[in-house]
Each structure stands twice: as C-alpha cells, then as structure tokens.
Amino acid sequence: MVETAKKQWFVLHTYAGYEDKVKSDLLSRAQSMGMQDYIFRVMVPEQEKIEKVRGKKEAVEEKIFPGYVLVEMVMTDESWFVVRNTPNVTGFVGSHGGGSKPSPLLDDEINRLLRQQGTPAKRPAITFEIGERVTIIDGAFNGVVGKITEIQPDKYKLFVSVDMFGRATTTELDYDQVKKIN
C-alpha cells in the first residue's frame, strides 16, 4: 500500500479481553510519542445488552467484535510502527505479512459502524434551522422530503417530520443523512 496523507480507519487484532487496554495504551502512546497528527480516534465498538445478573435484569455493554479495535490514522511508517508495537496488539487486519501495510476499511463500513455507535463519521460544517425542509438521502425514508422539528447539534442529530400515509411521523437522523433543499 502506498502511504497516504488521508485519515483512514484500520482494524487491529488484539488479545481478547484487552480491547479497552489497547485503546487507552494506543491513545497514551500517540500522545507521548508526538503522533497526535497521525493517530486520531480509537474505538472499541460496543452494544448494550440486557442480561440477568443475580436474578435481576441489567443493561451491560458487550463488545461487538471481541479481539478487535478500530483506529483512525494516517498510514506512515512511523504511525504504523507505533500502532503495531503497542502492547497486546497482535497485528493489523488486512496486512499480508512480510512488512506489507494493511488495507483500510471502506467508507461505507466505517460510516455504518460510527453511526451505530452514535458518532458521526465526519463533523459536518452544515448548519440547519428548525422548520427547514430537507431531503432524506439515507435510511428507511430515502428520497422523502421532510421538515426539521428539532436539532441536537452536540450529537449531530436532527428530528425530521415526514408525511407517512397521511400522518406526520418524526424520524431521528444524522446530519449526513439529509440534504438541504435549495
């Protein structure tokens, strides 16, 4: 793979149970080794699951991909060295051995994962206003025009009212799931 100055997401393989430790160690190493301009976000995808604990139902966080950690980075020889030599990292997924650099995740794959984790893929520079009309460009209401009823700028979320079978239905969307109507 040719080095690129573009931030991309890669998957690390770790020892099972050490995902959170790898995340904290990697962020710490990036800071102490001056790699903040090359290693950005580190994520351990989790989902909430209801389990019975001592006879009571409790919500617990469960790893979606046990033994794997996602890292957003610019792939250079230095950043690659720092990441793969982090304790408990066994390698990159997509690396074919012999010193070859790994393949990044596809944009669709990481966008879906980030949305699922409640984090927007990109920090949009667009601003919206309540009452503004937008076209939904992703999800179940793809192609439907609606009106913004609520905005959560800290989470990059919009609540859009759409007409469904003659009734107003509100749906929650990310900023990147809508397009402004000119």
Mean pLDDT: 86
Shape: globular
CATH architecture descriptor of the largest domain: 2-Layer Sandwich
The oligomeric state of the chains shown is single chain
> Which strands sit side by side, in order, in the main sheet?
10-9-8-7-11
Distance between the termini: 41 Å
Question: How would you describe the overall organization of this protein?
Answer:
This protein has 182 residues and is α+β, with helices and mostly antiparallel strands. It folds into two domains: 110 residues, Alpha-Beta Plaits; 48 residues, SH3 type barrels, CATH 2.30.30. 18% of the residues lie in helices and 39% in strands. The strands form three sheets. It has a five-stranded antiparallel beta sheet, with no helix packed on it. The protein has a four-stranded antiparallel beta sheet with strand order 2-5-1-6, with helices on one face. A two-stranded antiparallel ribbon has the order 3-4.
Report a brief summary of the structure.
With 182 residues, the chain is an alpha+beta fold. The chain has helices spanning 19-32, 77-84, 107-116; strands at 7-14, 39-43, 46-53, 56-63, 68-74, 89-92, 133-136, 145-152, 157-164, 167-174, 178-180.
Descriptive terms for the model:
Alpha-Beta Plaits, SH3 type barrels, 18% helix, five-stranded antiparallel beta sheet, alpha+beta, 182 residues
